Amino acid sequence: MVTVHSGEAPFVVSAPGKVIMFGEHAVVYGKTAIAGSVDMRAYGLAAPRSDQQVRLVLPDIGVDVQLDATQLPRLAAGDLAHPGDVEALVGQRIGVPDGPGRTAVLAFAYLYGRLCAGSGAPGLSLCVRSLLPVGAGLGSSAAYSVVLAAALLQLGGQLQALGATAADRRLINEWAFQGEQVAHGTPSGIDNSVATYGGFLEYTRGRDPLPLPSTHALRVLITNTNVPKSTKALVAGVRALRDAHPAVVDHILDAIHGISATASALFQSPADGGALERQMSDIVRLNHALLSALGVSHPALERVRDITAARHMPSKLTGAGGGGCALTLVPAGAPAAAVAAELAAEGFCCYETVVGGPGVAITRTVNAVPVAAWIAATAAQAADIVAGFAALSAADIARLAPARG
Ligand SMILES: Nc1ncnc2c1ncn2[C@@H]1O[C@H](COP(=O)(O)OP(=O)(O)OP(=O)(O)O)[C@@H](O)[C@H]1O
Ligand SMILES: C[C@@](O)(CCO)CC(=O)[O-]
């Protein structure tokens, strides 16, 4: 339990989404995965208030709830067997129907309960917006959890330097992982690690994430199939398959581990561009085939794979699968624009993205102007700071994050 600093001026926290290059699902079983941050982020405006009210505004998913701080129970370590059990404690009170909004409010209630709640806990308005598609495999949930954890830790005076030190990041990552457990049950921790640390990471559950000093720039196309999926259900499906056929599924998981090990070596190798692209293409194809064997592909993902393969651009699903996004390697000279147009004609959304940008960031100013004043000037018609933040254009909101280093 910490004392929330109600004297803190409004500030903005942001955290990136992720793309898993190799190793999703296998990473849940202790195998290695390789992931990088994408240049789309979640942004949270935290404004302390003096009236003991806690307001959570999530405009992307239609949530605006206000509770008296005393309605959110203080939670000590050990009060709950699993962070997801918070539902049983506060589920009745939050008045939000099932769906993304409910999960998001429960993750907040858990982290607020652990980090802030208690007698005398002051109020707070927190508004989170995201430029990441929700539930598409790009780690929108982890970016949201990292924003919550960093905002509440900052309010509690638990961070040394606005989230910038190694100790700050470790703390943010640990708490964000608990927020992810509310949403996903048994996540591996890779998504929140990428959202916290940014860059490229080699990740194995239970070990510190290893930043990969990639010597090769990788162009990728991300295609959102717009098919909704549930990470929790897909992870549970793989678990059921493994329980039924351990001797088969464990070999598949080991093979995926081998792919991540190959990718890690390739990222750090001095191989020339052509050789690297050939080997990367092979392992992208192999990884997708293995994920398909685990039952987490979808006809829309197979369609993306066929369209891009016809142009010699290999694709794999990224994230949990079952819909969501595919990742396509764009080798030098590949007709990325033509392929993106072909995919768009089939109703898919494509983003060409830069992988490996900055992780979590907390800012109190924009170009030396305090956040509150900057929002007031940028969204001049808004009634208050939360409404102003909610009204910012995507281009303006992106100015609240650090530039790519
Ligand atoms: N803009 C947002 N505002 C509030 N909550 C969000 C937002 N985006 C995502 N979330 C939270 O994240 C959840 C989506 O998690 P889900 O795992 O389905 O998708 P994802 O994280 O985008 O995909 P993946 O885990 O495969 O990378 C939502 O239910 C909500 O709780
Ligand atoms: C499917 C999975 O491996 C990645 C989801 O982005 C689940 C996890 O690692 O928690």
UniProtKB/TrEMBL annotation:
Main location: cytoplasm
Domain GHMP kinase C-terminal as annotated: residue spans: 280-346
GO molecular function, one term: metal ion binding
Keyword hit for Lipid biosynthesis: yes
InterPro entries, per database record: GHMP_kinase_C_dom, GHMP_kinase_C_sf, GHMP_kinase_N_dom, GHMP_knse_ATP-bd_CS, Mev_gal_kin, Ribosomal_Su5_D2-typ_SF, Ribsml_uS5_D2-typ_fold_subgr
PROSITE patterns: GHMP_KINASES_ATP
Record EC number: 2.7.1.36
Location within or outside the cell: Cytoplasm
GO cellular component: cytosol
Pfam families the record matches: GHMP_kinases_C, GHMP_kinases_N
Keyword annotations of the record: ATP-binding, Cytoplasm, Kinase, Lipid biosynthesis, Lipid metabolism, Magnesium, Metal-binding, Nucleotide-binding, Steroid biosynthesis, Steroid metabolism, Sterol biosynthesis, Sterol metabolism, Transferase
Chemical reaction(s) catalysed: (R)-mevalonate + ATP = (R)-5-phosphomevalonate + ADP + H(+)
Keyword rRNA processing: no
EC class: transferase
Pathway: Isoprenoid biosynthesis; isopentenyl diphosphate biosynthesis via mevalonate pathway; isopentenyl diphosphate from (R)-mevalonate: step 1/3
Domain GHMP kinase N-terminal: start-end pairs: 115-199
GO terms classed as biological process: isopentenyl diphosphate biosynthetic process, mevalonate pathway; sterol biosynthetic process
Domain of life (superkingdom): Eukaryota
Family to which the UniProt record says this protein belongs: Belongs to the GHMP kinase family. Mevalonate kinase subfamily.
UniProt-recorded name of the protein: Mevalonate kinase
Organism: Coemansia javaensis
Taxonomic path: Eukaryota, Fungi, Fungi incertae sedis, Zoopagomycota, Kickxellomycotina
